[in-house]
Amino acid sequence: MSYQKLNRDQIAKRVAQDIPEGAYVNLGIGLPTKVASYLPADKDVFLHSENGLLAFGPPPTPDMEDPELINAGKELVTMLEGGSYFHHGDSFAMMRGGHLDICVLGAFQIAENGDLANWHTGTADTIPEVGGAMDLVVSAKKVFITTEHTTKKGEAKIVKQLSYPLTGKNCVDRIYTDLCVIEVTADGLKVIEMVDGLSFETLQSLTDAPLTNMTAITA
């Protein structure tokens, strides 16, 4: 059977489904920021951005754009009722103080034990962009990763052991890719969802680390 990969918006929409009512959530730069567009308006979720925003909303319509309201990725956002903005240092105090329930980040690699590499590939021609990722992964109660399952060259991003510089050890709880959703557990990587038409054997062939197929159990 053939299968269709999720696009980046579909990945973000899938993540939004797993964010519970009342959660305080940091959205990292890139794909994670798209999650803001897919949170239901009737669900109270308090989005945090490391540059100093709390309770921001989806991107504005053209007539509501405010150049002073931006997230950490310099993208325009809206503020929800009761939202606030504050000093960068206060924002990091929230992060380091363990006040965030979930952080959603991108990744270059994720190891089978939950190690994360997302700030540098180690190559000489790339610019390191650690930002607040190291603070987030050691402080947030849960770490969700959004990423394509493989690189543009077809190399696995989910690996037995990292080959890129470390962001955080044993920190990833769940991985959302364009092919599947994976739970990171003490017993290894558990596949809990796959896109329609994708076989577990094909998914495993695109993954360097060993997987366990839980889809038949959770369906």
From TrEMBL:
Pfam families: CoA_trans. GO terms for molecular function: CoA-transferase activity. SUPFAM superfamilies: NagB/RpiA/CoA transferase-like. The keyword Nucleotide-binding does not apply. Keywords: Transferase. The keyword Membrane does not apply. NCBIfam families: pcaJ_scoB_fam. Belongs to the 3-oxoacid CoA-transferase subunit B family. This is 3-oxoadipate CoA-transferase subunit B.
